[in-house]
Amino acid sequence: MTIENILAEARESIKTKGYLDLSHRMKIWKACGERCYFEEQNNLDEKIVTLPLKKRVRLGELCIKKVLPAWDAKTNKDPRPYYLMNLINSYLYGDTPKAALNEEARKCSNFAFELEHHGILGSHTFAMDAAATLANTALRDVWWFLFDYEGKDTHEYIDGEAVDVELTAAQAYAFVIKCWGYESSGEWDNKKRKEFWLWYIDEAEVVLNATELERTPEFIIPKITDKNIEAIVTEFRQWPKSTRFSDRDFSNLDLSMCFLPAMDFNDSSFKNSCLTGVMFDRSEVGDTSFYNANLENASFECCEICGTDFSYANLRGANFKEINHNLVELEEEDVEDEDFIPTRFCHADLTNAIFLGAIVRFTDFTGAILTGADFSQADTTGSIFTDCIGLSSNFTGKTKTEG
Question: Whole-model pTM above 0.85?
Fold first, then answer.
């Protein structure tokens, strides 16, 4: 079958099914040329690079480039997938040894796994997973049982650890994760799903007909120029190897580029720091101080927040969805304990902040700006809203006076 016929058949299948099934993806991989199937592939001293391999990697690379904006939007362009992509190109077209790429691929695979293990799911995690999968493709080519697959595809996983790059990228582009607490589910956006695969066929036509493939330009990875934060950010990026950052002082720093999920920041201080857009999802920030910090558009989804001080902080557009769902609920007798310290949002700017489904019992919002803040389905039993600005007249949360 000619390349033209393979692609024409694939387009018709997409128009009928709404996606590109595995049998057609397999035909495209085979059209690139013979698979690098040698025993030496598992030998880290043996480097085998062919034009068919470069073509299959290029198809995956194009998919990842299409979905990396989802990663950037959530992580402030955390450099890990970009560094990995540059290393893949250096392996295929330069002098990067196989062992070096294998080690970085292992780290990124663990990173993607830990994100998902901690319930941090979404387009950005699929994008990271796709990059890690592409590194394994460069090292070992397409998994043999995918490459030789001849059955009828249902577009589901054959093996959770061997899903191809293209399918993972399609999930990043068009699979919508819906989380509620620590439960998650998802569904395809069928319009975007079809759009992705039709785009893929157009890109595949160029790659399959190429007689040679030049090395693509490297991704530019922003360097950290502020020596005050260079060591700290480097340490953050060791996650998940190191996750404990409790009882630390991060005051007066610009950490706005950081991605800080599922970490332990209990008893730490971020006073006066710039943390715009930072993602703290599922981290522990109990008894932590964010006093006067700039947290505009930061995300604390599903975090453990108890005794935390957000007083005078800029929290415009911040996300507190589902916070404290895995903590024991505070009761009146806990509040009466002389050692009890409430979570404080005193005089904070919470314009358009989201507390959907959050548990914020016995929390002090005194003097906070709450214009456009969403407390839908939140439990605010015993909380104080004295002198707040912009509290909606149809506010349905429970207050201390109603408690």
Answer: no
